[in-house]
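User: Before I run my own analysis I want an independent prediction to cross-check against. Here's the chain; please return only the structure tokens and, at the end, one sentence I can use as a sanity check.
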Amino acid sequence: MSSFSQRVYELCLVVPSGKVTTYKAIAEKLGTKSYRAVGQALRCNPFSPRVPCHRVVRSDGSLGGFMGWKEGGKVAEKRKMLEEEGVVIDGNGGIDLLKYGFDFEIVAMVKSNRNTTLNSFKKRARKIQK
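Assistant: Structure tokens:
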């Protein structure tokens, strides 16, 4: 397993049940624009479902692929897993990223400054939702 794949899997572990992130967000967190490389690493995830790669979707909120498949039974399985975690998927197969999207930056901000006030956290969350 490459160190890139390992870092992708580590970031997936941070995304809580009921939330999703995007291939792009993971790539940006890793300091790259290789969104497809993130997808390739997830396609080969040997630790699924302990490493929840099903929580990674496309930047437009659509499901994207799952386990190397772009449609069919595997993508339906991804949808079912997300729905079981409370993520609502609309009739067009889209997810509201403002509601269900996970923000790595908020987590990093809180971890780096344990004295962060609840008000500053709420302020940052409001900015993201605009």
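Sanity check: The chain has a mean pLDDT of 83.
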